[in-house]
Amino acid sequence: MNKLALWSLTSTLMYCTQAQAEVSLPSVFADKMVLQQKQENPIWGKASPGESIRISLADQTYKTKADADGNWRVKLAKMPAGGPYNIKVQAQNSIEIKDVLVGEVWMCSGQSNMEWRVKDSNHPAVETLTANYSDIRIMKVPRVGIDTPQFDIDAKWETVSPSSIRDFSAICYFYGRRLHHALGVPVGLIKNSWGGTPIEAWIPRDALDNSGEYEPMLSHWDQLTADFDPATYQQQLKAFNAWNKAGRPAESRVDKPKDPISGGKRPANIFNGVVNPTVGYGIRGVIWYQGEANGNRGYQYRSLFPLLINTWRERWGQGDFPFYWVQLADFRAEQDTPSEYSDWAELREAQSMTLSVPNTGEAIAIDLGEGRNIHPTNKQDVADRLVRHPLAKVYGFNLTADSPRFDELKIDGDKAIVSFKNVTKKLYSQDTWKVDGFYIAGDDQQFVKADAKIIGKNKVQVFSEQVKNPVAVRYGWEDNPVVNLYDKGELPVAPFRTDDWPLRSLNVVK
After folding, report:
1. H or E segment at 125?
2. Kind of pairing, strands 323-326 and 427-429?
3. pTM of whole model > 0.70?
4. Pairing of strands 496-497, 485-487
5. What is the pLDDT of residues 140-197, one digit of tens each?
6. Buried b vs exposed e over 267-288: b needs ≥16 C-beta within 10 Å?
7. Is residue 65 a contact partner of residue 33, using CB atoms and an 8 Å limit?
8. How far apart, in whole angstroms, are the C-alpha atoms of residue 186 and residue 183?
9. Cα gap 460→457, rounded to integer Å
10. Are 175 and 241 in contact, with CB atoms under 8 Å apart?
11. Alpha carbons 157 and 278: distance in angstroms, whole number
């Protein structure tokens, strides 16, 4: 070997050794980050196998060593809200994380309605102009759909300002802003939403496999990926791009090809690329707005949604942290007479059934949607209903969090008496004296529009001349129902049905 080649090889080996020795952290640990107050918070990274690492924060000092695979991890002691602090991580190299605050940290996940930006919501000019909060920090996790769990993400923490908040999640920001105002502590918000994605993409593949319930769906995706030909895909994509560049001439329509391997629809892909890099980061809880992409699979959602919550909690290793979500809002053509089926009503029921999972809560938005827009712009009211849950259940404020819900059905001759729980004040028909949204049926299972009358603080009498022997009642059981029943001055009544008759989504699995 000549001297030049030997020098080149030696330099390369020295560079590789130095690169391996470099201690590093995922992007979630960076300047302007927020640590969760009053709990131990993990911090982790990579270094050379066996390398000694020293971490310091305020008056705390920790020492550890990287394991045989170069991974290291420590838990920081509990701290009260405050800051700013610097975190120093020292090994053969040194990293300093600056302007670290301690406060409340929430993860904001879901599809497009969680992703919906401040600049596209109600009053965007006012909202952006007044967005000056140095103690609210935000992070936007990029979209990465992949079949293997990722260690890191390309993201950064920012302070809330007119420029940073415009493209941030409206619900996440409005939710965090309310918390900041109520608690007077720093707030960290991690937004990892992705529009148009089904819930199974947010769940680890092994959890889906181990459940034993989703084999048809998983087999379908496995076959799609097995049949995928990258070369053919690239040819089709080239043809589509050329057609698109030509102005999409109608006489030569070309459909955009689909890549089943990457992207946000394949089971587990989003968990691997978007969620996994932050799993274990100290949080108070999660807020979730998703379901539209599973709209025709309401029955399957009954098990998928609890599986997601329980799996995330297990992977985080932080106990049963709070998990709150938004029930699907009203959408499509308004309907005040019974339809044979309603996919979204079935999905909403599955969401509500997930309240059986401990430490959860649901914000009802059946009156906040827009018939012609799957992305209603009134994200302020949605966030206000959602934030009631932590304010009441986590932080101890005396306010109503849960909407009135069906409790009991009694038949009194030709009338049905429906009782509700969670009524704080009294039932009230908003806007008109007439109570809208109730259907009634007999043994023939044929629902008709019903008359309804409030007969007490928490009771409604439901009846129709067409049904002499009622056995079942439904309320708000449409994609976009006409409803107006509230706990006066508080929250809307949650849609429900008293029957257990078969649903259309019973056998829809993919």
Report:
1. helix 124-129
2. unpaired
3. yes
4. unpaired
5. 999 999 999 999 999 999 999 999 999 999 999 999 999 999 999 999 999 999 999 9
6. bbbbbbbbbbbbebbbbbbbbb
7. no
8. 9
9. 9
10. no
11. 13
